[in-house]
Fold:
Amino acid sequence: MTRCYNFCAGPASLPEPVLETARDELLDWHGRGLSLMEMSHRSPEVMGVAQRAEQTLRELLGVSQDYAVLFLQGGASTQFSAVPLNLLGEHRRADYVNTGQWSKKAIAEGRRYGDINVVASSEDTRFSTIPPRDTWQLGADAAYLHYTPNETIGGVEFFWTPQVDAPLVADMSSTLLSRPIGVDDFGVIYAGAQKNIGPAGLTLVIVRRDLLGRAHALCPAMLNWQIAADNDSMYNTPPTFALYLSGLVFDWLQEGGGLAAMEACNRRKAQKLYAAIDHSDFYANPVELASRSLMNIPFTLADPALDQQFLAEAERAGLLNLKGHRSVGGMRASIYNAVSEAAVDALIAFMRDFEQHRG
Ligand SMILES: Cc1ncc(COP(=O)(O)O)c(C=O)c1O
Structure:
């Protein structure tokens, strides 16, 4: 068996030890004579897996009991609706920062439910910057401020936490677990699982408990965080296998030294790749230096006519999913936690070789 290096933006690479454990336990989970996939979500086994996953996640991120940890479904996109439905309250106004395609989607969905004020936008720089905090035009009475700490498509990341009076709501889909964060700075953190958490199908919401119980009367039960919290995320059948795999990923992170160790590795990986891009006249990354993502690194070739050839040769070399998002073109290497330093080294060597032969 040959496993390739996978730079997919999501569903992304999973740690090999996690896949190996899942393989070994697939038919007979812990001697129970059946797969975890085949067990009731109310069984002590599955409830235990869910509780352990939550506990390990709390330890990794430092999540206090002031916050509920919810394991939901519907992806981060469903939270674009759940956030306003749970938080807008009576004034029905909220602030949003627009730093890219995912911010725009959250804003568009928010506008279905309330008066959304875009406090700042970097669209005029083609989303290659982050608008400085002192330029933001905050609205009065905003129920919350929503932003996207890492824009997966543009490769732009906040390395500072906005200070605002309203509760801070963050779509952390493509940055959560890549480095330590101060959870207490946030009202709500949400993320689709399929980058650093686990497989697609699971959505994580971490919500400060005082923000529960504010949902609009028409908020569907399945989107209501209070109902999810009251039912330990088991109001309906949860995605048990995705939860189990995510728990294995959390164990893997903890065994590897936690998020500080992960951050050190992620910074090394990103620095190498940016250096390779910057030291070449053939490759380019458009993002301002201070906001370059650690997780998603878009880059272009000097001659876009070579894009297809680059992708085809990369694939032959075992380097997969380097095509940029269809809305921006070019290339993108997503180097999430499970993408090893060896994978990044192999990509850099390939890029140098391609430049020499075709550039
Ligand atoms: C930052 C960000 N937000 C939201 C989404 C949408 O996530 P989902 O597909 O889980 O709905 C993505 C998907 O890549 C993302 O990267």
User: Anything to note?
Assistant: Residues 258-278 form the longest helix (21 residues). The first strand starts at residue 5 and ends at 6. The mean pLDDT is 97. Residues 16-255 form a domain with the Aspartate Aminotransferase; domain 2 fold (CATH 3.40.640.10).
